[in-house]
Amino acid sequence: MAGEREPDPVVLSWSSGKDSAFALLRLRSDPSVRVVALLTTVSDAYGRVSMHGVRETLLDRQAEATGLPIVKVRIPSPCPNAVYERAMGSALAGFRARGVRRVAFGDLYLADIRRYRESYLRAVGLEALFPLWGRPTDALAREMIAAGLRARLVCVDPRRLDRSFAGREFSPELLRDLPPGADPCGENGEFHTFVHAGPMFLRAIPVRSGPVVEREGFVFADLAPDEPPPRAVRPSGPSNPIVI
What we know:
The chain has helices at about 20-30, 55-65, 80-95, 110-125, 135-145, 170-175, and strands spanning about 10-15, 35-45, 50, 70-75, 100-105, 125-130, 150-155, 190-195, 205-215, 220-225. The relative contact order is 0.18. By secondary structure, the protein is an alpha/beta fold. The chain has six helices and ten strands, in the order βαββαβαβαβαβαβββ. It has a single domain (about 10-225), classed as Rossmann fold, CATH 3.40.50.620.
């Protein structure tokens, strides 16, 4: 209709986990914005999603399942903050040149992380968006599961959570078994997840469990694709004006 404002193009910071996946679902229900790409950091040393330890092949399948292009920022491990900011700044400059002014994150309540993101983006001429901010995490975790989100715990901090949680499904049973003081969404770093199915995807991503290993003080449950990658299918609708 003439006079209606076009939705703002938004890039979503994508961790491969439940918070960024649920943030995508929320953003897609907001007519004022349109997610045009995913942005992820990948460890050059391991070829895996930073911190989560998810294989790059599974990351690619997630992007295909969302119907969105993905930009990977490759960083060393460990990665000094100055190196991270240079690498991320280069990717963000590319988005800004294509008309993007906002970057969304799945953060829930850690105020210091929010302040850092807002300050850093402001310095490069962008704005931070937090579609899940402030929701009580016990209710949010159950809402995710009820909506059909399916995820596995792929990284556990053994200082906060027993290593036996690595590899478990994010489920009502898992929430019941969490020890007192553990955040139901793992917001304090207790665990990280890989989403393999949900309403934000065009299709589920079959995975099989691999070995559980300890590396750099964290316990990782390795997941691998369980079938050949399907042919990518883009959702119907207007074509994406931003070419990455």
